[in-house]
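Predict both folds.
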Amino acid sequence: MPFSSRTESGDRELIQIVDSAMAEAARKSGIWLVCRPGCSHCCLGPFAISHLDAIRLRKGLTDLECSDPERAGRVRARVREEVARISRLFPSDPISGMLAEDYTDEEPCPALDRETGTCDLYSSRPITCRTFGPPVRVGSESVGVCELCFEGASDDQIAVCEVEVDPDNLESELLDELGDRGNTLVAFALEWDKNGGRAGIRTPDPLGVNEVL
């Protein structure tokens, strides 16, 4: 399904809502929140991202190739390394499938610049990355804080810093419009080359990411 102008504008609105909520969470959290550029503890190990996140990341990498091709090339090289290393550990449908429950991995996300500890695709990062750290609520569900933050804080102190990140469930609406095809990982979202195939493997694009770029 094409990435319609409505979906594109809706994603921009979603990012504004989430980023605004996280700015408020940071204000409330004050010194309890230790997240800083260079702290990349949350960038280790694979994690699920949505179809919407995948599209945003791909566009971010495409934009980076125009503005800073050398940095984009380093991202693509890390993506190829990551895919080669972990693809054999996935189910038969690696794009919509998830890692086995007993699989653990401490390798950095391929979007992470390991020298600076910062994200090369920061402005296009997934919602999970945007909301990790301070206490947030998604609907009625509270999400745990980063283990490095709020050290020594009581449950009550943490609770007063909590914010709701998407009160109107805009992300779910946008995914419904896209015909959500399940979750993937950052490496798999970024591995598709400009000709529509995986590096070294000519197969269709199960997430439909190339359809929307």
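Second protein follows, with its predicted structure tokens after the sequence.
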Amino acid sequence: MQIGLTMVGCIVFCFFVGRFIDQLLGTKGIFITIFTVLGVIGGANVTFRQIMEVTSPKSPSANPEDPKDDNGAP
């Protein structure tokens, strides 16, 4: 659910930024289009990184709570 909300959040945020700039400059949708495309690309990038973080195997030596030292002794 977080992945979907992240993607939608990026797109909606960029849409409204583009809409604001269009209204500010008096243009007719060019910035909405540009920023919506940037939102899709950015959302896909963040979503991809979230998926890779969840699915990547965890290294046993990367656990800071592990009481063992480098030699394997407790």
